[in-house]
UniProtKB/TrEMBL annotation:
This is 2-methylcitrate dehydratase. Belongs to the PrpD family. Pfam families: MmgE_PrpD_C, MmgE_PrpD_N. GO terms for molecular function: lyase activity. Gene3D superfamilies: 2-methylcitrate dehydratase PrpD (3.30.1330.120). It comes from the Bacteria. The keyword S-adenosyl-L-methionine does not apply. It comes from Tritonibacter mobilis F1926. Monomer. Residues 286-470 form the MmgE/PrpD C-terminal domain. InterPro entries: MmgE/PrpD_sf (IPR036148), MmgE/PrpD_sf_1 (IPR042183), MmgE/PrpD_sf_2 (IPR042188), MmgE_PrpD (IPR005656), MmgE_PrpD_C (IPR045337), MmgE_PrpD_N (IPR045336). Keywords: Lyase.
Length: 503
């Protein structure tokens, strides 16, 4: 790996293309390096993981809305949409939008946290949609996905967005564009322009994850994937992009990040170096914000030690800056304590999540979020006894580069009415690669079978798993096998129509 210094340049300085971050990203994408076997294996795991959460969310309103929008844009050859027969194809950018929404709706797929945070599996829907539309093979898709993960992970390592309230999809647009560039074997110049265009049109604020969080949280990464496809298409037609996108005098760093004097350091593979960043990422066992994963595991471990939860006086969670200020009481969001809050808001309330996990001894992707569950009097009472506090040591470990030091958990002190305490801490979720029960292929398969039960038939489950596990050998034009069809009755009642629904 080589670490690249990235800063603002005045227009008069005429920064050469080869010294621009977008060009360096494009060079990585255009490098025809082989994909390592363990990387291929993990890509397959994440294809299974994405399909699992998409199957579980396929009938939910935001997913149905996105699917209806996509189906208004038929195209041949086109790409497939989760839940719909593969014969019904749509324009690839709209397939990416619909499938990306299905993948993100439950906040239940993979994650990577460093200087910023991300869900790198959001790269899969746009890259897969283009691969289907262009009739490419499983091996082609694997190469594209290895690049998508590589670029996103390294942008997340080097550039913090959230401190400036920029949503993390600003790293996703460029990574998906780069992955599509690899998939299509595009020249460096074309990928360079597409990466910049994708950055330019996917920079949005973090209000999508603040206060009363709406369904846009699921749509946002899907939108970024859609924009990445459009950026590549536009540039392939000979169009350019704002340049230099990151380093320009009126560019991303100068006006949206830390300003003209800021310097960032972004690591990227050197020429001929394998793309292995996906191995730094991790998926979720529980359908909730990643910083809650270890704390859910901790709650189910502490519950039996506490006993009668009505005797709890207070609960203090000492944790990282991010957990405290984004999903904890440090956010100062009254919505995070509101039993009538949306699922998306409760997903970003560690106070609610810890209370429910403590009561139930675990977490369920649907039952844990129902209005009836959130409005139980005993749950509300326990929930409102919970506060969070930043601990500098947990913050340091959150940002640590040494994998042995890195941690996303916290320490919990439960004080009882009689003054006694129950204290425990957990650094990593059980399912983390360095956790108590690291996720392996068998766990991804189990997650898929569990989340798709009652949604897909047993035969459909088997067909999908056979295709996914044999991804490397899928021939050109056979990637439709990574789709699944759901009986129309399971997709729920018809939704209100939009401007394109004019049948």
């Amino acid at each position: 790996m080589k670490t690249h210094e990235v800063r603002t340049y005045k227009s008069a300085e005429d920064l050469p293309r080869e010294n621009q971050l977008a060009w360096k990203i494009a060079e990585v994408a255009a490098d025809p390096v082989a994909v390592d076997a363990d990387v291929t294996d993990m890509i397959i795991n994440r294809v299974i993981d994405n399909a699992a959460v998409a199957a579980a969310s396929v009938a939910r309103r935001p997913v149905a809305s996105a699917r209806a929008q996509a189906l208004s844009h038929p195209m041949s050859p086109g790409a497939t949409v989760f839940g719909v027969d593969s014969a019904q194809r749509v324009s690839p950018e709209w397939a990416a939008y619909a499938n990306g929404t299905a993948v993100r709706e439950l906040d239940f797929h993979d994650t990577f946290l460093a200087a910023d945070y991300s869900h790198p599996g959001d790269n899969i829907p746009p890259i897969l949609a283009v691969a289907q539309h262009c009739g490419l093979s499983g091996a082609d898709l694997i190469r594209g996905l290895a690049t998508g993960y590589e670029i996103q992970v390294n942008l997340v390592k080097g550039i913090c967005l959230h401190e400036h309230k920029i949503d993390h999809i600003a790293h996703l647009g460029p990574s998906a564009a780069a992955g599509i560039g690899t998939l299509l074997n595009l020249p460096t110049e074309t990928i360079y322009q597409a990466v910049q265009q994708a950055l330019h049109v996917t920079t949005t604020t973090r209000q999508s994850r603040k206060g009363e969080i709406s369904s846009w949280k699921a749509f946002a990464p899907a939108f970024a994937g859609k924009m990445a496809i459009e950026a590549v298409d536009r540039v392939m037609r000979g169009e350019g992009a704002p340049s230099p996108a990151w380093e320009g005098e009126d560019g991303f760093i100068a006006w949206l990040l830390s300003g003209p004097e800021a310097v960032y350091h972004v690591p990227l593979p050197t020429s001929g170096e394998a793309k292995r960043a996906i191995l730094d990422t991790y998926t979720k066992e529980h359908s909730a914000e990643y910083q809650s994963q270890a704390l859910i595991d901790l709650a189910r471990r502490m519950g039996p030690k506490v006993g009668d939860l009505s005797q709890v006086k207070s609960i203090l969670i000492e944790t990282s800056h991010h957990t405290h200020y984004v999903i904890g009481t440090g956010a100062n969001d009254p919505q995070k304590m509101d039993p009538h809050a949306s699922r998306e808001t409760l997903d970003h309330s560690i106070m609610y999540i810890f209370a429910v996990a403590l009561e139930d001894g675990g977490w369920h992707h649907e039952a844990s979020y129902t209005p009836a569950r959130a409005q139980r009097p005993e749950t509300k009472a326990l929930w409102h006894k919970i506060t969070t506090k930043e601990d500098p040591e947990w913050t340091r470990r959150y940002h640590a580069r040494d994998p042995k030091e890195k941690a996303f958990g916290g320490k919990v002190t439960i004080t009882m009415q009689d003054g006694s305490t129950v204290v425990d801490e957990l650094a990593l979720a059980d399912a983390h690669p360095d956790g108590a029960r690291p996720f392996k292929r068998e766990h991804y398969v189990k997650k898929f079978l569990t989340l798709s039960e009652g949604v897909l038939s047993v035969d459909a489950q088997k067909r999908f798993l056979n295709a996914a596990e044999g991804l490397a050998d899928l021939k050109a034009g056979t990637l439709d096998a990574l789709n699944f069809t759901v009986d129309a009755a399971r997709l729920g009642a018809p939704r209100p129509t939009g401007i394109f629904d004019r049948s």
